[in-house]
Design goal:
The chain has 351 residues and is of the alpha/beta class. It has a single domain, classed as TIM Barrel (Alpha-Beta Barrel), CATH 3.20.20. 48% of the residues lie in helices and 12% in strands. Helix 7 packs across helix 8 and helix 9 runs parallel beside helix 10. The chain starts with a helix and ends with a helix.
């Protein structure tokens, strides 16, 4: 994103007065390679292919605040690779990870994660060093350090089903694992901020596994660790949380954890979530990403976009998908969202 876009996003995130609703879309390797015709392996491992693909997207849609902006990622491989998981790569889809923590008690034998040397954390940091000045010279900024959340990272290492059973059968061991992943994630976020520099003024945490547990489990196994991550960074930083699985158990508690923005899925109407957060969170959403974003016509996308905007009255919202931009979403549908937003913003000004 450009510096002026970041200022606009930041004001919206902190619920300060703004003259127009912004549009911000999460884009990463599930979408960019397909849209730009780049193989995933080239996108990940050819620095020039990554730079040109990302540049082409931000230039194609200048009205959109692409989020988190110039994100160096390897699908979901960075965090599990640093913990010791086996990563598998393919040409035409993001990588996957193999669950390698076969015995929960083995957590006590693990060495702390060092982002400067471990797994794809070290590779990503090197790429930031290589490219950051080029990104700045092109007129863009990198305002966010980004990481998967503590439950999500634990599930990469342990497996989702095992992790959920661990909460029931061995809560003490589960806390030890989450202690380990939380420490690793704080170190990873701080390493990004250090390498990228003072333009970093926010953190972006992605954790869908929170959506698989109930309210009691959320408060015991997720909330304290998410709050600890937020508390590890300055209060005035923008803190964004993504969960497009289910936010029912956590949504009222996210402001207390320290988050400013929630990007959530299609499971809930945005007006319902807005009523539940009572102005304590900015909502980033939530146009249906698959049935509408990928499969819908531009006319259907425009209609759904206006419905989302009108449901909130344009207050406390950053227009986005209900999650990230899904693979295969046509550029015409992004332009339809931009067009709908422009109409909505003009109508608000005229009132």
């Amino acid at each position: 994103m450009r510096p002026e876009q970041w200022e606009h996003y930041k004001r919206a995130a902190k619920r300060q007065p703004i003259d127009r609703v912004p549009i911000s879309l999460i884009i990463d390797s599930p979408w960019i390679p397909g849209h730009t015709g780049v193989k995933h392996m080239d996108f990940y491992f050819d620095p020039e292919a990554w730079f040109q693909a990302t540049l082409s997207v931000v230039q194609e849609f200048p009205e959109v605040i692409f989020f988190p902006g110039w994100w160096i990622e390897y699908g979901m491989a960075i965090e599990p690779s640093a913990l010791g998981s086996r990563i598998r790569f393919w040409d035409y889809q993001p990588p996957s990870e193999a669950h390698m923590l076969f015995h929960l008690e083995d957590v006590e034998q693990l060495q702390p994660v060092d982002p400067m040397s471990d797994g794809f954390m070290a590779v990503a940091l090197h790429r930031y060093r290589m490219h950051k000045q080029r990104i700045f010279d092109a007129g863009y900024t990198i305002p966010f350090a980004t990481a998967r959340g503590p439950l999500c990272t634990a599930s990469f290492f342990r497996g989702v089903e095992r992790l959920i059973w661990d909460m029931v059968e061995d809560p003490e061991g589960t806390h030890k694992l989450l202690r380990y992943t939380t420490d690793a994630l704080i170190a990873w976020l701080k390493a990004q901020a250090q390498v990228i520099g003072p333009c970093v003024e926010g953190i972006f945490i992605l954790d869908d596994i929170v959506g698989f547990v109930g309210p009691n489990e959320y408060m015991e196994f997720a909330h304290p660790y998410m709050k600890e991550i937020c508390d590890a960074f300055p209060k005035d930083w923008v803190k964004v949380y993504h969960n497009d699985a289910n936010v029912d158990a956590c949504v009222e508690h996210l402001p207390e954890a320290g988050f400013d923005v929630l990007n959530f899925g299609k499971q809930f109407d945005i007006a319902e979530i807005q009523a539940r957060v009572r102005g304590r969170l900015t909502l980033m959403g939530n146009v249906n990403p698959l049935e509408i974003g990928v499969r819908g016509t531009p006319e259907e996308v425009k209609k759904e976009t206006l419905r989302v905007l009108e449901a909130t009255g344009g207050e406390g919202i950053i227009l986005s998908m209900g999650g990230g931009v899904s693979p295969g979403m046509p550029g015409a549908n992004i332009r339809a969202m931009v067009e709908a937003l422009s109409e909505f913003n003009r109508a608000r000004v005229a009132v």
